[in-house]
Amino acid sequence: MKPLWEVVRDLEFAHQKGRLTPTFIDEYAVKHGERVSALYALCAKNFLEVEHEIGRNDHIARERTMGVDQRAVDRAMEEEARILHQELRSAREDGRPYALRKPGKNAQFIRKTGR
C-alpha cells in the first residue's frame, strides 16, 4: 500500500491525462493493494471525475442526461405560493395574524365562524 499523498497524486495525474476510468481504478487497486471503494472515495473527495467507460458505469452517463423537470417544479412552487397568499389575505381580513389562526391542536385561537 502506498502513502495517501502518492495515491492522490497518481489519481490526479491519471485524471489530467484523461485515463481515470473504472478499469484504471481496478488495475491500480490490484497492483498497489488498495480498495476500489477507497479509490472512488478519494476521487470524490478531491473532485476528480471518473471518465465514462462503455459497459462499466453506464448509470453515470444516464444520471447526467436525466434531470428534474423544472417546469413541474415551478408550477408546484407557484401553487404553494398561491395557497399561502390566499391564507395570508384571509387572516388579514379576520384581523388576527396568520400564526394565531393556523389550524391544529396547538392553535391559540379558534377560527371565527360566519355567524
Walk me through this protein's architecture:
The chain is mostly helical. It has a domain at 4-56. The chain is 63% helix and 0% strand. The model has no long low-confidence stretch (mean pLDDT 80).
Distance between the termini: 81 Å
Q: Characterize the overall form.
A: elongated
Helical amount: 55-70%
Instruction: Kindly estimate the percentage of residues that lie in beta strands according to DSSP.
Output: under 5%
Gyration radius from CA atoms, angstroms: 28 Å
**Which ranges are low-confidence, i.e. pLDDT below 50, for 5 or more consecutive residues?**
none
Main sheet, how many strands, which sense, barrel?
Answer: none
Question: Care to count the β-strands?
Answer: 0
Average of the residue pLDDT scores: 80
Alpha-beta content class: mainly alpha
Alpha plus pi helix count: 6
Provide the succession of SSEs. Answer: HHHHHH
Write the layout of secondary structure elements.
Elements: H1 4-17, H2 22-32, H3 36-45, H4 58-65, H5 70-94, H6 98-101
Q: TL;DR?
A:
The chain is mostly helical and 115 residues long. It has helices spanning 4-17, 22-32, 36-45, 58-65, 70-94, 98-101.
Keywords:
115 residues; elongated
